[in-house]
Amino acid sequence: MALLLTMPLEVLLSISHYLPTADYCKLRQSCKHIEASLHSSFAKEYFSKRQFILTEFSLCALVDISRSKFAPYLTYVIIAAERPVWGRPHLTPAVDNAVEATRRGRMRQEYADHLDLISLGQDLAMLADAFAHLPNLQAVGIRDFNSRTRFRDYPQLEWRSYGANTYYQHTGLLLAKPGPGPGTFIHGPTPLNVDDWPRYEARLFTGLLHALGKSGSKPVRFEVILRQIGLFDIAFNVPRFSEPIINPVLARLETLFLDLNDDQVPAMTTSGTNCSYYFLRVFLSKVPALSTLRLNFPGSDHHRTCEFLSWLASPPTNPIRGLLDVSPPSPVLFSHLRQLDLGKASISIDVLTGLVRKYDGLQGLQFYRVSLTGTNASDSSAKINLWAKALRFFIKLETPLTSITMERVLQDHPSSHQTLEVRFNDGTQSKTWRGKDKATGLKELADSIAIDWPADNLEDDSEDESMDDEDSADELDDDEGDDNE
Fold first, then answer.
1. Where do Acidic residues bias regions lie (predicted)?
2. Which of 83, 143, 171, 324 is the S-S candidate for 107 at Cβ 3.0 to 4.6 Å?
3. Helices 98-119 & 56-66, crossing angle to 10 degrees?
4. Cβ(212)–Cβ(242) below 8 Å
């Protein structure tokens, strides 16, 4: 102990860096001197980002942290889309012993308390209270998964929500999470209402915005990262009575991540046409300060995604609306947008180029599992490398691009009824370009793209690609677009 007390702080920090969390905490609690010496590094590692759930136990911990010496370190609060549930009686097996009876009783109590917490709005009050006392809060997020990225315990332990382990100890069950589709679950018993995950996530989304507005907190990042069920369009409705509370929060946002789901009937406009993602379009008009926008479209319908992204790529309009008019909202103009990320989407090449042309201040693009489609018969039948074509078109724009990331991207090939993998000349499926020489960098990136064309349509030869690239500037002047982690 005497050696530890006289050890230089840099050496102590270096030693503690290799300890697992349990041993690190024991070292920290060994004496007041070491606790004080490790306070700053401990707080930054364990309290700069914390994940909670909508239970009284978990939210009480958040409120306590906001009133502790760790409050200044907490910059990112995540609320997990997991919750206690209760099984249907006819599906619940008989209770055979006292331990199981105690657990079953605790599960019932946790479920009832959770319902009361959210139905009475106490969760929003607690969130607002905590946010109001976090002076350096910069980001708020929603997730439906546990992370294994904590280096100290990797990969054995997950980075779980505060209160999740306690719930497991008391009930013997994991908290319920959304499964691959509506009404399914990864963990937990069958709930009373198996189809309400979209409603729960929608309430969580709007509830967090409402709590931020009530608290006066001013975060600049809002990140929704959902691997199972994305947000349905109804989540983006901001009712009139909430606008004075929520709109100021949205107006300050600079970074927005959204995972979307379109499994709902599209809105119908006055003219009789469908309008996908109607509430989202209105919502985006309330976030004019965005510099980073990430849109993921897992499982979304291709045509609805295309329609939405086409709207996003279109120039703003000033429609004259009647009192009962239901017209598509005017396309937004993010004049501060510098980074655009699209994921898990199928998008036409003219929409992609239209997006880059419209947001002419873009510095970075990222594509994850994006499938590029052609817009004419030549694109659909010939062996034209659409990604290379798009990159070469970007060179001709004045957009100040300095980085492009392509990961597991695809290309539709209708004539063979296939979606083709895009690889690079080093055999990988991902590549990033960064630099200031856009012309050289994008040309090299385009030249590195390789597509394993199907054996049919042998009459199409590679000449079509180079010829089409030369004429692409005229052909891609349309600003119409399609849709998108």
1. 457-485
2. 171
3. 60
4. no
Distance, in Å, from the CA atom of 24 to the CA atom of 18, rounded to the nearest integer, reads: 9
Q: Tell me which DSSP letter residue 425 carries.
A: T
Q: Would you say 421 and 450 are in contact if contact means Cβ atoms under 8 Å apart? A: no
Q: Is 307 helix (H, G, I), strand (E, B) or coil?
A: helix
d(CA 276, CA 481): 13
Structure tokens at 285: 């008009």
Q: Residues 64, 34: contact at Cβ < 8 Å?
A: no
Domain boundaries, the chain: 7-45, 48-86+97-264+273-290
Torsion sign over Cα 148, 149, 155, 156: negative
Amino acid occupying residue 156: Q
Q: Which helix (H) or strand (E) covers residue 295, if one does?
A: strand 292-296
Alpha-carbon span 295 to 308, nearest angstrom = 11
**pLDDT tens-digit readout, 311-332:** 999 988 765 554 445 677 889 9
Closest C-alpha among 417, 416, 392, 420 to residue 404: 392
Helix (H, G, I), strand (E, B) or coil at 387: helix
What does the alpha-carbon distance between residue 364 and residue 353 come to, in Å, rounded to a whole number?
A: 14
Task: Quote the strand ranges of 344-458, DSSP E.
Answer: 346-348, 364-368, 371-373, 403-407, 410-413, 418-424, 430-434, 449-451
Rounded to the nearest 10 degrees, what angle do helices 197-215 and 243-252 cross at?
80
**CA 62 – CA 51 distance, rounded (Å):** 9
Q: Mind giving me the DSSP string for 75-138?
A: -EEEEES-B-----GGGSPPP-SHHHHHHHHHHHHHHHHHHHHHHTTHHHHHHHHHHHT-TT--
Half-sphere exposure of 36 (CA within 13 A, CB side): 4
Long-range contacts from 270-273, C-beta under 8 angstroms, 24+ separation = 270/325, 270/326, 270/327, 271/327, 273/328
Tokens describing residue 187: 């963990």
Please tell me the pTM assigned to this model.
0.86
Percent of the residues in the chain that have a pLDDT greater than 70, as a whole number: 82
Closest CA to 182 of 202, 154, 165, 168: 202
